[in-house]
Specification:
Layout: E1 2-6, H1 12-23, H2 27-36, E2 43-48, E3 51-64, E4 70-81, H3 90-105, E5 109-112, H4 119-125, E6 129-140, E7 152-155, H5 158-168, E8 174-176, H6 179-192, E9 195-201, E10 204-214, E11 217-224, H7 230-240, E12 245-251, E13 261-270, H8 273-279
Parallel strand pairs: 4-5, 11-12
Antiparallel strand pairs: 1-2, 2-3, 3-4, 3-8, 5-13, 6-12, 6-13, 7-9, 9-10, 10-11
Helix pairs in contact: 1-2, 2-6, 5-6
Amino acid sequence: MVEIRQSRSDEIQEQKALWQTAFGDDPRYIDWFYECCWRPENMLLLLENGKLASMLALLPQTLRLPNGETASAYYIYALATAPEARNKGYGQQLLGYVDLFLKERGADCATVVPAEASLFKFFGIVDFLPAFYTRKVELLRSMTTALHPQDRIKAITPAEYNAIRERVLADIPSVSYSETQIRYQEGIGKMTGGGLYQITAGDFQGCAAAEYLDADSVLFKELLLPPEYMPRGLAALAARMPGQRCFARTPAQWDGMRGSYLQPFGMIKWYDPDKRALWGADTQGYMGLGFD
């Protein structure tokens, strides 16, 4: 028998075990999610004969539309299925339940970040559409420009980061995260030696969320500086953070670095047709973090 329901507070350890089995993540990462973002009412479980077989988390978001209006969204995160329960369609069953669940809550849409390119097809089968893109650049330290003496980098709090992020993205169709979710990103970054940073380049203040991929490689999950300041911002970050190479993701509209290329990043399923029409079919929205 298959049952789908919201989580109970006493089921955390079983969920953590499934997460570890499905993704192989550092236990510290899993524990941090449950400390920072987990809410039983936003965790959906699929049980097979009373045993946890599949699960996902729903993280509330706000989506900024092209005309400046907003839409309510939930980000589908950590969709995991136990190895012995795979190939039974449980992931699709959970996603079907999400539609009913979120419509009852009055949500305008759901978003998702496929963990790999092949999963865009999987989510497309259940009516998700590409909607969010990033512009990515890969650089060796030797390829960064000279550091401007007046440019500065400093670590900042989630509240400070979110204030800068919202200001910089004010005119871009994009996802807004709660301060709690930005705190989650801060913790993920700090576990690797990164974190949240303010970038002062000339007279402009932007921000970056950084994670180390390994001892020599750093990923700036989002680099939020206008194109004319990106080379300076990366030079300042390279001076602050040791490593031989860096990867930076920026909004699709900001082509500020030679060699950058566009990548699909996230998908959307609309429940409100009016908000869908306001978003438009060709909008290249920005989701940024994704907690991938």
